[in-house]
Amino acid sequence: MTIKATRTFLLIGFACLMGMGLMAFAVKLVQAQATAATPAAVATTITVNTDADELNSNNNCSLREAIVAANTDTAVDNCPAGSGADTITFADNYTITLTSALPDITTDLTIDGEGAANTIVQASTCNPVTLPGGCTPADWRVFTFTAGASTLKDLTVRYGNCDSDATCSGLDDSDGGNIYASNGSTSLTLDAVNVQSGFGNVYGGGIAAYGGDLTIQNNSLIGGSGAGNQSGNGEGGGIHFDSDGRLLINHSEISYNQSTSRGGGVNAYYCGDQLHLEASTISNNFTDGSDGGGLWTDCTTTINDSTISGNTAEEHNGGGVYINSDGVVTITNSTFADNQAATNMSTGTVGGAIYNNGTLTVVNSTLYNNFAHDAGGGIYNETGTTATLVNNTFAENSAFDAGDTIFNKGTLHISNNIMAGGEPGKNCDSADGSIATDINNLIENNLNCGTPISTADPNLGLLQDNGGATETMALLTPSPAINAGDDTVCADAATVNNLDQRGVPRPFGTHCDVGAFEFSAGANFIVNTDADTDDGSCDAPGTGSGNQDCTLREAINGANADNTGAHEITFAGDYTITLTANLPNIT
């Protein structure tokens, strides 16, 4: 009995253990099945198929419905549900006129149009900046981003209005006339997007960004002739940026925007990372009540291969760029032209191209025809600041009072610069500042800006396309700037790196040249016939192939094809050349 009882106990124990094992296996199986049944987030393409602004059940998919579907991951009318980073596309070319504010975008989302001319999203049909015919504008903006990483692509956004009576959402309901990215947004990218004719009462007529990165790229246009954005009583006519992230403007244009305070084009109030302006244009922007006609920055900023032109700070400083006290700005291979810090008879205006109240470095750049009503037509360097200028060309800048090219009250480092034009005795004025570095500068009409190697006319060409990303002023022959530069300065890898503004290698001759342009003599061509033919070769008589001559047409084509430097075409005799077609453009 004892043995039997023991065996029974063992069998029961074994059965219990088996049962527990089966239960554990069953639990694991259920868990595995549950895990397998949970699908990964799948991005969905939601196609808008109407230009109506609606939220109903009529079997269409409107832009408003598509945004709701993306935000909520549920089907809305004929818009499918999506989970993950969805993309909204358009079935056709649409101009969508809103009847009220769109829902805030609260998820990762791309809105991909059919091109800026073909997909237009507008707050109303009334331009709130110009108010044509006394029309009544909307009282809402177009897009608001409050979370996630979003992209707008290939479309136009316009006519948003956040004036003092508007109902725009956000930290301040008067910010971001067309687009607003809150501090909950991780990033916003505008790719080939036009942002036009938006009105923000305080910050950002076109765009106000407070969260994450803002990237503007691929031929995006913020403003444009007749379509500028406006900040009515505040800052950043085109863009206001105040974020822990980075502001990148790449191959894009910021133009014809207006503010009544800082930054007619761009107001970079705070950048947790940096501001980068690359191969872009800031032009014809205007502020009539404060500083920085084109750009106001308090950020670490790089400007490369870019053009800052035609901007105006009407009553204050920095027609092109205003650098605030925390700003550290590096400018390379760029051109500043026709900017002005204009009339204010009571206080004066300074820094036609650049006003520096921070730290400034300018390398391989051209500053031409900038104007300040008071001082520093090119650059005004404030007390307690540092400006480093290396291999730049300054020409025809002006100021009524002092320092046509530079007015320096801080510390100035100048090497291999051309400072041309200006009135006698006032081109470069450093009476109230110090010159810490003075190496091989050519300065016409110098006033206490060190000891230049020459005060002669540098013999500059016009500001024009000489190759490269930006317009430059060529050195013509003869020029005292040719072979007059300091080779050690030109070889500095951190600045000039043996290149000129166009990317042409330096030095070409015995030494590098002073200024932003490296002169290089190319091949010369001698026309030796009155024929107008082209066999692809400019030959001496009786040599080479084809017609064995050099026609004017062949000489021009040869010069255009040769990128080694400046060319000269001469004639071997007296010729009357009758053309058979238009001559090639001279490039």
Descriptive account of the structure:
- The structure is a single chain.
- The chain is mainly beta and 587 residues long.
- It is 10% helix and 32% strand.
- It contains 4 helices and 50 strands.
- The strands form 5 sheets. The chain has a 25-stranded parallel sheet that branches.
- Strand 49 (525-527), helix 4 and strand 50 form a beta-alpha-beta unit.
- It is globular and about 80 Å long.
- The chain starts with a helix and ends in a 16-residue tail after the last strand.
Query: Distance N terminus to C terminus?
Result: 114 Å
**Number of domain modules:** 3
Helix content: 10-25%
Instruction: Please tell me what the overall shape is.
Output: globular
Report the sheet-strand fraction.
25-35%
- Rg from alpha-carbon coordinates: 32 Å
Mean pLDDT: 91
What's the tally of helices? 4
Structure classification: mainly beta
Total beta strands: 50
Main sheet characteristics: 25 strands, parallel
**What are the segments in which pLDDT stays under 50 over at least 5 consecutive residues?**
1-38
